[in-house]
Design brief:
The N and C termini lie far apart (58 Å). 82% of the residues lie in helices and 0% in strands. It has 2 domains: 105 residues, Tetratricopeptide repeat domain (Serine Threonine Protein Phosphatase 5, Tetratricopeptide repeat); 87 residues, Alpha Horseshoe (Serine Threonine Protein Phosphatase 5, Tetratricopeptide repeat). It is mostly helical. The chain is elongated, with a radius of gyration of 20 Å. The relative contact order is 0.07. The longest helix is centred in the C-terminal third of the chain and has 31 residues.
Length: 194
């Protein structure tokens, strides 16, 4: 009974925040903070608060809200994903990577694996990036994950595995086998130049 009442209160605060967000962002922030305080579970109030604070250029406030979500709901992968995204807003790549890896500890998710792979690739850790892109594909990331995996494998120096990943990619995109040689040239030339 109490949980249902608290959930109803959270929905009310999110609606009130949405109604006042444009004209009174501080009031919207207050409503969302109230919703986050009484929320019995990770829900819509935390992402809404992070989005609002980002919209009003309070990126560190967005990080604080996401950290609160991850601390209150440490077993919820969505809370950690939100924290990773918030850390990326303030260019804290290592902290974002830690959050995405925590998501992958809790649940195999393609979005977290792709985000972690991207951060590893930016850091020049191509073998780690390739491993995360492979996890993203295994979790349902589709052809995009294979393309990124092939590029990371090539950068890591494993040309044979990169070619295998690219061939698998070609089987999953329209006219992929016909475009395979062009895709191979594009990917491998682009990666050499990078």
């Amino acid at each position: 009974m109490l949980r249902a009442l608290r959930s109803a209160l959270v929905r009310f605060t999110v609606r009130r925040a949405a109604a006042s967000q444009r004209d009174a962002p501080r009031r919207a922030d207050w409503w969302l903070r109230l919703g986050c305080t009484v929320s019995p579970a990770f829900g819509e109030c935390y992402p809404a608060l992070v989005r609002l604070r980002r919209a009003i250029e309070d990126r560190w406030g967005a990080v604080a809200a996401a950290q609160d979500a991850a601390e209150r709901f440490p077993e919820n992968p969505d809370a950690w994903m939100l924290l990773g995204e918030a850390f990326q807003m303030v260019f804290r790549q290592h902290d974002a990577l830690v959050a995405y890896e925590q998501v992958l500890t809790l649940e195999e998710r393609p979005d977290a694996a792709l985000a972690a792979g991207d951060l590893y690739a930016r850091a020049g850790r191509h073998a780690d990036a390739a491993a995360r892109f492979a996890r993203a594909y295994a979790a349902g990331g589709g052809a995009e994950a294979l393309w990124l995996n092939a590029g990371a494998l090539f950068q890591a120096g494993d040309v044979g595995a990169a070619d295998e990943a690219l061939h698998l990619w070609a089987t999953q995109v329209p006219d992929g086998l016909e475009r395979l040689s062009d895709a191979r040239a594009e990917l491998f030339v682009d990666k050499r130049d990078a």
